[in-house]
Amino acid sequence: MPLSFNYGFIEELKSHSMALKLLRSPHLSFIASFLHQVFILSNRRTIAYTELVGLLENHIQEIRDTHGEALFPKSAKSYLDDWINTQTGYLRKYLPKETDEPECDLQPDIEKVLRWLEDLQGRRFVGTESRLQNLLQLITELSQGINLNTQEKLTYLKRKQAQIQNDIEAVENGQDINLSDTQVKERLFFLSDLSRQLLGDFRQVEANFRTLDKQTRKTITLSQAQKGQVLDQVFEYQDVIENSDEGQSFSTFFELLMTPEMRDGMRKNLQALLKHKEAQEIVASDTLLRHLYSYLLDAGRKVNTTRQQVTDQLRRYVQEQSQDNRRILELIRDYEKTLHTSIEKMPITTEAITELDSASIEISSLFSRKLYQEPQQEQFSIQPEQQIDPHSADLSQLFALSHIDEDQLVQHIQHQLTHEKGQTNLQKIINTYPLEFGLDELLTYVKLACEGPISANIDFDNLQKIEWHIDGAPRSATLPTIRFFRETN
Amino acid sequence: MQSEENNFNAQLETLHKTLKIRLLKGPVFRENQRQEWEVLERDQTLLRTYFSQIGLSLRIDDVEGYAFLKQEDKEDDNTPSLIVRRSLTFHQSLLLVMIRKRLAEHDSEESAPRLFVHRQEIHQWLQPYFSDAANEIKQIKQFDTLIKKVSEWGFLKALPQHSDEFEIKRIIKAFVTAEDIASFTLLLEQRLKTEENEENHDQ
């Protein structure tokens, strides 16, 4: 779509665009802070309506606590409905396939506003070098991709080969060809920006599929095609989503994302970054980078489901229903017309005027009913019929739902860290503080390593065997090596 | 081995029994009875034979995922009908057509698999066909009674946690067909004609 910046166009955009409406809204801080927190920060693609109401209640309470009790007096539900109910609201509410609880998702335009607000706060230095490198690489890739001349292709590949040879020699001679700290930092910021953009684009891709679907259905409805022509249309329209540029690009993206090489490669490389001093700081503080693969997977899956659904439904509609549907709508228009004239001319009766098939059979047998019985009076008494000594009941299991004290384990780790000058591993901790509760406790350590308050490194390549005793019986588990270290800041 | 086979047969028999009873009691949906649905699709010939003995035909829509029984067309014999026909009032048939219309419009617009509407929207469909009531509360009550009736028939379903939102069940397509709508219109036209004739007589 060509961009336009003339006065008339922008004036029109100003009144139509949901994004601009949100930016103008006096409640911008209220709405944006909420939507950013629940959708963007946690990378949730969709949230159940009822849950969203609850989240908004909390949000309103938090704002009131710090900014004044009088703020936002309406109920969370009515605010939320305001944002949904308008024809093209900030949120899309729909009924998912499997449950009866409506879900909400951000409209792509609103996501753009939130991303823009992120950008606006321009937190870090602007790296130009990595972008230039990227540009160069893209241009080369393009020119190679469309160049059919074998000779030129060979020259290019030879040049690349020579370059690699140079690098090999340099490394063999002990020269350092690693990136400088600035270069690393710059690339990481670039990476983080790029990932953000990519994730931000998924809602748009999904919305575009939906728009394509709507347009196709509209074309079919409007076209006054005869039966024979409809058949041509079937072939023309049924794969409209799959064949679009967006559809094709997304298919390739999703296939690539699902390959095990992609998954393992991305996880491993991101893990490796955590070992680098400069990189570690940035990656550790950026949740998006740390969870990049799973975020991409979540987002990709959602888009993929939508694409699948839209493609299937559209194909079915084109093949079977569009004809029938149009006829029904025409008939209903006739019905409404007649209805209007008849309402003016005659009184409406409340008697039955017509009939329709039901779908069930009513069998009523006289003897299926019970004879009259005197209703029995229920007697309740607070006196227990059977006396049980309350002290004999063993309720300890009831109170022992979780007997593992996470804080205690954190302390174990910290003591061990102090003891070993800031670096230790799980085996050593367990040697010092033997497991009391067995597997549960071990898993709690693993949980702490994954998300916990102490920096940890999980090495999937090297396994470690951890042994303990429960009631004298030996137990062991083999798991990736987990190292804890103290952050140096 | 033998007993395992017996066991399996017994299970299948129970499933068939359940299916037959369920179908007699009302439509069966794939989304609610996945296991039974599979058997229904696989053994449909068996089931058809069973039901045809009592003059019923089994309709299965495997795309939309519902199945129900219909009275077979009778050829002048005097066998009684098993399936009751519901009598509809003017307003009930109106609401049914409006629901069917909303579904048709939805299908011609987008692919979202499930369609739900707010109670207020349904009120708005009905409003134009009711005389301007002085008593608005009474009118809304009337609308809600209609909605409740149509929900009992299974064409609308209130969402469990949200009593003001209704899913439009796609099975309405099988019950409010093109022919039905055409016959509703015809009926109105005929009534209009008789009314006009009577007026002419009066004059």
From TrEMBL, chain A:
InterPro entries: DUF3375. This is DUF3375 domain-containing protein.
UniProtKB/TrEMBL annotation, chain B:
It holds the Pfam family DUF4194. InterPro entries: JetB (IPR025449). This is DUF4194 domain-containing protein.
